[in-house]
Amino acid sequence: MIKCQDISYSYDGIHTDLDELSYSINQGEWLGIIGPNGSGKSTFLNILCGLFKPSKGNVMLDGEFVTNMSNKQIAKKIAVLSQQNSYTYSYEVKETVKLGRLAHSNSFFPSWSTIDETAVNNAMMMTGTEKMEKSFINEISGGERQRVFLAQCFAQETPYIFLDEPSNHLDLMHTIKILDVLKELQKQENKTIVTVFHDLNLASLYCDRLLGLKDGKIYIEGNTDSVLSEDLLKGLYDTSFQILDNPETNKKVIIYKSNVL
Ligand code: ADP
Ligand code: MG
């Protein structure tokens, strides 16, 4: 379980980018974070996984203060896909995925076991990256690169998986494929999944609960169906949507509306 209490964050020490946010994420659930650009979604995710230190408040991960945990201790629990993935070197695809296993290496000179090899191969199968293992990550497409970084997260084999806009650059087939993999991991291995989504239909299909941020504060929170209401979404995005029920899936369908058509 992750529990954060009264966390605030400011990038410049003057403006408040996250404002006294308290929230809990339960084991085995899939939380979707939604909200307009600049509302604090990425900042919140980075604080939850200890990448950013809050200026106020604290985060507890399975009963321990995240600020008291080493990077390696956190990496054994949480795999994170950031919104902007940096790659300084032109690693090969498989070498990049292998970096996900660093969290599990015990010595300064890491050994490579069959467990590591299996985890990497499985992660590459899950993301459809196995055929490009020898390609260089700076010589593949944006969507392919996104799948390589997703594979790195899966190879880490952590109980918590945090993905900031996982479907960025992905075509529709790969989007569904990756989100289905995550759903299976949630159902079969009780993984806790947190994803930032812009596509509300994907949020509707996959998430158990939604957290809507606006101006660095919690604007709405609740189970997915209750959050996906026309009034609440209009307030969150200052844009109108039409919401229908899909009787086949029992999920809400969000229809986008144009202001000019
Ligand atoms: P979101 O992910 O919801 O689009 P962010 O968490 O990235 O939003 O940003 C929240 C707020 O913090 C925004 O107002 C943004 O301008 C500000 N911010 C984000 N990153 C930086 C940064 N590196 N330096 C200064 N301000 C930043
Ligand atoms: Mg963001």
UniProtKB/TrEMBL annotation:
Keywords attached to this entry: ATP-binding, Nucleotide-binding, Translocase, Transport
Pfam families attached to this UniProt entry: ABC_tran (PF00005)
Residues covered by the ABC transporter domain: 2-240
InterPro entries registered for this protein in UniProt: AAA+_ATPase, ABC_transporter-like_ATP-bd, ABC_transporter-like_CS, P-loop_NTPase
Protein name per UniProt: ABC transporter domain-containing protein
Organism field: Gottfriedia luciferensis
Lineage of origin: Bacteria, Bacillati, Bacillota, Bacilli, Bacillales
